[in-house]
Specification:
Chain A: GO terms for molecular function: ATP binding; ATP hydrolysis activity. The complex is a heterotrimer. Chain B is mainly α. Helices cover 76% and strands 3% of the residues of chain B. In chain B, the strands form 2 sheets. Chain B has a two-stranded antiparallel sheet with strand order 1-4. In chain B, strands 2-3 form a two-stranded antiparallel sheet. In chain B, helix 1 packs parallel to helix 12, helix 1 runs antiparallel to helix 13 and helix 12 packs antiparallel against helix 13. Chain C folds into 2 domains: 128 residues, Rossmann fold; 132 residues, 3-Layer(aba) Sandwich (Rossmann fold), CATH 3.40.50.2300. Classes of the chains: A alpha/beta, B mainly alpha, C alpha/beta.
Chain lengths: 502, 317, 322
């Protein structure tokens, strides 16, 4: 039967980056006309694997076989020629060109005079192409006039215009509504009927169960499972994705106190926040779990005054406050470590000492003139306290390692002696040892009475460090667990919206 | 670990060139000029170069502040012209000199603040905003004077351009003071740190509780203020003020800043570099005159020398 | 003396510019109110209408030229629309286009650049509007007449004066205008050839450009003063540069230098009266403007006009200051 024809085989794929083994001996088989679900936590190696398949990265070891022939995929262009297309999470289409221009970008049909584009033919081809895909979009209109979902369809159409046999879709539904997802799925079925194989990457388990034929699970760069979707249930799948024991890694010491430090009520902001309420107590570490895009970061930014709120109240130590800017948040004793340290936290061209001191200059100056002795003492004290590995406090931050940089950002916020410390992905991309140091530090701060709100995508971290855990899904809190009641699958179910479906 | 020592050496050499490449270029140029012209290293000529560089230098200090925040100020030459003609006409009306100076400087600061407000609060692009300010200021200067120069200023005003403090001409004294004060602000004050941090990473700066708007407002106001100050020295030297004064000065100032190693992307650079950059341009103009280089070649020579100076440290970056 | 039509035109040009920067303009409420109060006068007439496009109005020379033209327009009863190109040939092109679409009867143009103006002149030719060039010629298109002073003759005049003043020997510095402009070229040629031919003992020790600019005249001459311990005379190709040079000489306390300028602007006349400047070649911009309007009216009345109408030059010294 045609279904069983092997279209693609990846065998023994390994890839390491400096300090990280991203993939270890991973095998993947894709049949003709098959929809394969690829799941795993953030950082499990899904993207690395797909980047190798599409020629963006090269594997250290391993063989890729296309329709029985071993191939060497050098670059994305070559992958396209071989019939492998990828649709990225972030759309790469150009909004100011027409739909047709986007589809044939870089491969426009030419007139006999070679450098002139045959526009008529281009739009004709686009139209024919759309017809095959059952798409009703006029190729003449500008892409910017389309909805996000329609743009996604154009992206799919573009990918298929390369005569692709294999289409990789990386989180294609993350920005779509239910209706739009339905349309996309019917398109996927159309492709399947035409014998095209699809690798479908998604965090939404419910979709995985709806659309895929077979699922494979990656964890820490290793293939941990592969099964027809009919033979697994959501709980088993989640177990496969997160199942690991890390009890010693997250030593837990603090005991939460009863006193409320921060309360938020009904925070609302468009699609991002649809009414979030919770309390944070002195000495408590509150974990905030949820998938990327669930609104976790928006909660943090709203409390910190980085984004304006449409509705909602913020109470600090029993007093209602208005926070309109980070400055005001800081004045109420709130610190916020943003998720992307390079883009939002660090001053890469400035020395370590300035990076740490910058939030606290009022204390470190007299009449606006910096008292360097105080500044250097502060920086040195944090270098010692956080064990920041640096040749000197004057080292330019750009030259420090990722983990060290994260400690610098942390030091910047600790210099303010905050009452409330919000940490967004405090250990992302950080080696295990430094991670443990940061967790120990958080415990220490909680003991001193600091209230900590920690956002993390890594479930073991959330479970290991938090006293209490909130789970977010699509702008709402979808679950709350005490430390002792929480398990990874319970959290994962809430985070993927699975809890609602039973 | 074998390579650590050699690596370190390499890095040091690179950093040395990056930090001092422009200084080396500058001294090479001076050396070359002193070899071909016996007049170059005379006291009068050194004073000449310093005096001629003082106007561009003062403007370039303000420009450095603006560029450090990743902005740019194209309006400096026109603001200079507008403040100069207003100052000159107030002087001719016989107002007290100190009052006129304060008014002129304040006008410069206000014009700069307008650009600053538009950039900070309305988030307009600095290049467009200051281009607008450039056109408007020039237009106002022309309308205000009807296109005619204002001449014969009260002789008591001459000291600002032609007077001297001991052996040192006033323009040089003023420029030196501005460089020192600017250096102090950039390296020793909260404001200086905020300027660097804002240019380096505006998002992080805002999230660190820095009031970015105030900082931006300050740098543009300072740039306007210093343009006005440079304008006063210029009209003191010329004993007249024309609405066409200062056209093209923005390029000299930007050149001094960039040649001095300040990054147009912001967050990186210092006034020492700008000082050398301004002096390099001054020495170059002076040298071309001393050597009687034909007008037709002047542009070519200038461009080559500046390109060489830039290459000296870009090459190792 | 300031003419309302002129005021209005300049101001309208400014307003156009401001439109590009509406927000900025709004913040300068003061400016806008000033502008609107001035911009009310618009020329309306059935009499012949002449358009006058000037390369710049920041130079007093052209302001005087405009005054002369305006006076003549008044006496001969024609309407004159004056426009300022602000030394920008693109602006000049749009100015001329505006005049063509307003269907003026003749266009007087003082080009910013001899080549850049050609397409605009051709457009006027196509619209059957006669064109007269003033002060600077055009390198193409059909031009009814060119009205200008003879800059080579002016340079010659300056050389003869300076040569006699120095008794036929000494060291002379020449400050040049913007490299490549015809004024700089012609004045230089006239001066240099006359010096070489008639005063072989006079040595031109430095030729440097100061871009017709006073501030540059100052700093360039400062540098030349250090390079040259002996200077007897200076010829600058315009007064702005010579005034800057005088300022430099005074500051350096160098005396005994005979300065000669060109253009006879008000400041230069004052300097001659004060004994600082020995002479300046006077073009007669008012006459030039007057002749321009006159020639245009003659041509419109069907009279034949000369292809080139020279405007007499005049050497101003202490003896004959106006």
């Amino acid at each position: 039967m045609a279904e069983n024809q092997v279209s693609l085989e990846m065998h023994g794929i390994s890839k390491s980056f400096p300090g990280v083994q991203a993939l270890k001996e991973v095998d993947l088989i894709l049949h003709r006309g098959e929809i394969l679900g690829l799941v795993g936590e953030n950082g499990a190696g899904k993207s690395t694997l797909m980047n190798i398949l599409t020629g963006i990265l090269h594997s250290d070891t391993g063989i890729i076989t296309l329709k029985g022939k071993p191939v060497n995929i050098e670059n994305p262009r070559q992958a396209q020629i071989m019939g492998i297309s990828i649709i990225h999470q972030e759309l790469s289409v150009l909004p100011n060109l027409t739909v047709g221009q986007n589809v044939f970008l870089g491969r426009e049909p030419r007139l006999p005079i070679h450098f002139l584009v045959d526009w008529k033919n281009l739009y004709y081809l686009a139209k024919e192409h759309f017809k095959k895909l059952n798409l009703d979009i006029d190729p003449h209109i500008l892409l910017s006039e389309l909805s996000v979902a329609q743009r996604q369809m154009v992206e799919v159409a573009r990918a298929l215009s390369f005569k692709a046999d294999i289409v990789v879709m990386d989180e294609p539904t993350s920005t779509l509504t239910e209706m739009e997802v339905k349309n996309l799925f019917s398109l996927i079925h159309t492709l399947k009927e035409q014998g095209i194989s699809i690798v479908f990457i998604s965090h939404r388990l419910e979709e995985i169960f709806r659309i895929v034929d077979r699922v494979i699970v990656l964890r820490d760069g290793v293939l941990v499972g592969s099964a027809p979707i009919s033979q697994v249930d959501p709980k088993q799948l989640v177990m496969m994705m997160v199942g690991r024991e890390l009890k010693e890694m997250f030593p837990k010491e603090s005991l939460p106190q009863k006193e409320k430090v921060l309360s938020v009520k009904n925070l609302k902001r468009g699609k991002d926040l649809k009414g979030v309420s919770f309390d944070l107590h002195r000495g408590e570490i509150l974990g905030l779990a949820g998938l990327v895009g669930s609104g976790r970061t928006f909660v943090a930014r709203a409390i910190f005054g980085a984004d304006p709120l449409e509705e909602g109240e913020i109470w600090i130590e029993g007093k209602k406050v208005q926070i309109r800017s980070p400055q005001e948040a800081i004045s109420y004793g709130i610190s916020f470590l943003p998720e992307d340290r390079k883009a939002q936290g660090l001053f890469l061209k400035l020395p370590l000492s300035s990076n740490i001191a910058i939030t606290d200059m009022k204390e470190l100056s007299f009449l606006g003139i910096i008292i360097f002795k105080k500044l250097q003492e502060l920086a040195s004290s944090f270098v010692n306290k956080l064990k920041i590995r640096t040749p000197s406090i004057f080292q330019i931050v750009r030259n420090l390692s990722g983990g060290t940089q994260q400690k610098v950002v942390l030091a910047k916020w600790l210099a303010l002696k905050p009452k409330v410390l919000i940490l967004d992905e405090p250990t992302v991309g950080i080696d295990v040892a430094t991670k443990a140091e940061i967790h120990a530090l958080m415990n220490g701060l909680a003991k001193e009475g600091v209230a900590i709100l920690m956002i993390s995508s890594e479930l073991p971290e959330v479970l290991g460090v938090s006293d209490r855990i909130l789970v977010m899904h699509e702008g709402l809190i979808s679950g709350e667990f005490l430390r002792q009641d929480a398990t990874q699958d319970k959290i994962m179910l809430c985070a993927t919206g699975g809890a609602n479906n039973g | 670990m074998i390579s650590t020592a050699s690596l370190k050496k390499g890095v040091n050499w690179k950093i040395f060139l990056r930090n001092y490449g422009i200084v080396i270029s500058f001294f090479l140029l001076c050396l070359a000029l002193s070899l071909v012209s016996d007049r170059f290293l005379t006291w009068t000529n050194i004073l000449n170069v310093l005096r001629q560089s003082s106007i561009n230098g003062i403007i370039a200090v303000g420009m450095t502040f603006v560029i450090l925040t990743a902005g740019i100020d194209l309006s400096v030459g026109s603001v200079l012209a507008l403040t100069a003609v207003v100052t000159a006409s107030l002087l001719q009306r016989g107002l007290p000199i100190s009052l006129v100076i304060i008014t002129g400087l304040a006008l410069g600061a206000v014009l700069g603040s307008v650009s600053g407000l538009l950039v900070s609060h309305l988030h307009l692009f600095p290049i467009i905003t200051t281009l607008g300010m450039m056109t408007i200021s020039r237009g106002l200067a022309l309308t205000y004077t009807g296109g005619m120069p204002i001449t014969t200023l009260p002789s008591s005003f001459d000291f600002i351009g032609a007077g001297s403090l001991g052996p040192i001409p006033i323009p040089i004294v003023v420029a030196a003071f501005i460089f020192l004060a600017g250096h102090f602000i950039l390296t020793r004050t909260n404001l200086g740190l905020y300027i660097y941090s804002l240019g380096d990473n505006p998002v992080a700066a805002r999230l660190s509780g820095i009031s970015a708007n105030k900082v931006i407002l300050f740098v543009y106001a300072l740039s306007g203020f210093l343009s006005a100050l440079a304008g006063m020295i210029l009209i003191g030297r010329l004993d007249s003020a024309a609405p066409t004064l200062g056209s093209g000065y923005e390029f000299d100032a930007i050149a001094a800043v960039v040649v001095g190693g300040t990054s147009l992307a912001g967050g990186e650079g210092n006034l020492f570099g700008t000082l050398i950059g301004a002096l390099l341009i001054g020495v170059l103009n002076n040298g071309l005159n001393l050597l009687n280089v034909s007008a037709l070649w002047e542009g070519v020579v200038k461009g080559l020398v500046i390109a060489f100076a830039l290459l000296m440290y870009r090459a190792v970056k | 003396m300031k003419n309302e039509v002129l005021e209005g035109t300049i101001v309208r040009k400014e307003m156009k510019k401001m439109k590009k920067f509406v927000i900025i303009a709004l913040s300068l409420v003061l400016v806008v109110s000033l502008v609107t109060s001035c911009a009310k006068t618009t020329p309306t007439a059935k009499k012949p209408t002449l358009g006058l496009v000037l390369s710049t109005l920041t130079n007093p020379f052209f302001v005087t030229l405009l005054d002369g033209a305006q006076e003549e327009a008044k006496t001969s009863g024609v309407t004159l629309i004056a426009m300022d190109s602000q030394n920008d040939s693109a602006k000049e092109a749009s100015n001329i286009e505006d005049l063509i679409s307003r269907k003026v009867d003749a266009i007087l143009v003082n080009p910013t650049d001899a080549d850049a103006v050609v397409p605009s002149i051709k457009k006027a030719n196509d619209a059957n509007i006669p064109v007269i060039t003033i002060d600077r010629a055009a390198n193409g298109g059909v031009v009814v007449s060119h009205i200008a002073s003879d800059n080579v003759a002016g340079g010659k005049m300056a050389a003869e004066f300076l040569g006699k003043a120095l008794n036929g020997k000494g060291k002379v510095v020449e400050l040049q205008g913007i490299a490549g402009t015809s004024a700089a070229r012609d004045r230089g040629t006239g001066f240099d050839t006359t010096m070489a031919k008639e005063f072989p003992d006079i040595q031109i020790i430095a030729r440097q450009t100061a871009d017709f600019d006073r501030a540059k005249g100052l700093s360039v001459f400062e540098n030349i003063l250090t390079a040259q311990p002996m200077i007897d005379g200076v010829f600058a190709q315009n007064d702005e540069m010579v005034l800057g040079a005088i300022q430099a000489a005074e500051a350096a306390k160098r005396t005994g230098i005979t300065f000669v300028g060109y253009d006879a602007v008000d400041d230069a006349i004052t300097a001659i009266k004060g004994g600082k400047l020995a002479a300046t070649v006077q073009q007669q911009p008012a006459v030039m403007g007057k002749l321009g309007v006159e020639t245009a009216v003659n041509a419109l009345n069907g009279q034949t006009v000369d292809k080139f109408i020279p405007v007499p030059l005049n050497l101003v010294t202490k003896e004959n200051t106006p």
